[in-house]
Amino acid sequence: MLLASADARAQELRPQKPLRPLMVDPCSPSGVKLATDRNARIQQCVAQGTAWVAQMPDDEQTWTMVRGAIANYLITLWRAGVLVGTKAEQAFFVRCDRTTMTQTDIDAHRLVAIYGVAPIKPAEFDVLRLSATTK
Question: Against a cut of 0.85, is the pTM above it?
Fold first, then answer.
């Protein structure tokens, strides 16, 4: 059931306008090809898929939900072959907790998530960041 919701979320995040074919669109589990930078596209999809954070309090429960949402999306990409590795741990990681935010961030209602993706070699991560304002 979790994977089904991640697939649905990924499908909802398809781009609004068509782009030239060149590479696999990480937002589309159907394999639509796009001429965009993969990491920028993944970041865009994660930001769109976690926009609900603005309506949430900045607390441990929200951090857990953000980790789950990002991880579900990245699992979908891994299973589609966009990320490499024989295990999910080799394909990506997600952190959103007190190690990614200072007390100043928390006081300012600024949520910070750090996640890494391995698009070329297992366990060689491109590290990406999500920063969002919470309620």
Answer: no
